Amino acid sequence: MIISPLAEVPEALEILAHWLYNEWHEFDGRSKELIEVQLAGNLNRDVVPITFVAQSDAQLLGTISVDVSDLPPFDYLSPWVASLYVVPTARGAGIGHALVRHAQQFATSLGFSPIYLWTAGSTRLYECCGWVAFERSTYNSKPITLMRFSNEPRNA
């Protein structure tokens, strides 16, 4: 499996938009067209915002982004790891973990720390990658957990 910037496989943009729309449209209300515009803005190789794709033998397996902002009430926090998605047939194989680690390493290599994310689902994967929950909130009236990752040593 390789993880590369979407800018290296721009033909995957429409597929990713389809995945993200199907996964989160009911949650965030974004149209597929808006998602495509947002992904097009992430066609970078070495700066934020950026989207990464995981693939094996040219088969797309998953995606993750590092964005400047991802949650309007918390725009003062930046950057955000966002839009983690792994195709259902590839889940449980460590791809999500690898994508999260890749995004963390990318962001911290640029000097960002801490970095943030929010999830409406389980926090277990992120906790296994060193993320810590710091607040519970709501997004479109649905409960979410805000998390942060810091490459700074934690106090005991």
Your description of this structure?
With 156 residues, the chain is an alpha+beta fold. It has four helices and seven strands. Helix 1 (13-28) packs across helix 2. The radius of gyration is 15 Å and the shape is globular.
Write a brief structural summary.
The chain is α+β, with helices and mostly antiparallel strands. Helix content is 29%, strand content 31%.
What amount of the residues lies in strands?
A: 25-35%
CATH topology: Aminopeptidase
Question: In CATH's first tier, which class applies?
Answer: Alpha Beta
The residue fraction in helices comes out at: 25-40%
Which radius of gyration do the C-alpha atoms yield? 15 Å
Mean pLDDT: 95
Structural descriptors:
156 residues; Aminopeptidase; three-stranded antiparallel sheet; 29% helix; 31% strand
Break the fold down into its secondary structure elements and pairings.
Blueprint: E1 2-5, H1 13-28, H2 32-40, E2 50-56, E3 59-67, E4 80-86, H3 95-109, E5 115-119, H4 124-128, E6 132-139, E7 142-149
Antiparallel strand pairs: 1-2, 2-3, 3-4, 5-7, 6-7
